[in-house]
Amino acid sequence: MLDSLPAGLRNRLALGQFADDDRGIEGLPVRLVVAFVVGVAALSVMLSMVNGVNTLAVSELDAKPSPDVVEPGEQTVEVTAVDADGDPVSGATVVVKSGTADLDGVATATTGDNGTVTLDLDPELGPNQDEGTLAISLKPPAGDQYVDRRENTRLLVVRQ
C-alpha cells in the first residue's frame, strides 16, 4: 500500500513525522462558527420575509362567557368573542355544547358588532354530580385572519 503513495509522503510516513501534526483540524472550528453565523443570518432574513406576508398573520380567538358560573336550569348567558389583544370580534359563530354537564342539543349564534351573543341555555347535571362544564367553541368570521385552535374558556355549571 505504501508503494502507491508519492515518494515525499512515503518518506514522511516512514519517519513518523505525521504523529505530532495536529494541523488537520486547525481551521475546522472557525469554519463551523462562520457557517453557523451565516446560516442563522440567512434564516432570520427568510423568517422576516415570511412574517411580513399578510396572509400568514392570524390571531387566536377566545370566548369570554358572562357569567362564567351558572346553576342547572334555564339561564341566559352572554358570550363575547375576543381576539388575542382582547378586542371583540364581530361575525364569529359561537357554539355551546355538552361537556361534563348536559345540554339538550347545541346552542349557536353569531356575534354582533360588539362581538357579543346572548344564548338561552338549559344545562343539567347528572344525579350525584355537583358540577360540570359546557364547552364553548368559536368559528371565526369568513375571510378574516382569525383562528380558534386552542381550547376556549368553559362555562362552569354548579349545583347550589
Automatic annotation (TrEMBL):
Stretches assigned to the DUF7382 domain: 56-119
Pfam families listed in its UniProt record: DUF7382 (PF24107)
Keyword Metal-binding annotated: no
Signal peptide (UniProt feature, chain positions): none
Transmembrane segments: 28-50
Key word Cell membrane present: no
Organism superkingdom: Archaea
Keyword line: Membrane, Transmembrane, Transmembrane helix
UniProt-recorded name of the protein: DUF7382 domain-containing protein
Species whose genome carries this gene: Halobacterium jilantaiense
Lineage: Archaea, Methanobacteriati, Methanobacteriota, Stenosarchaea group, Halobacteria
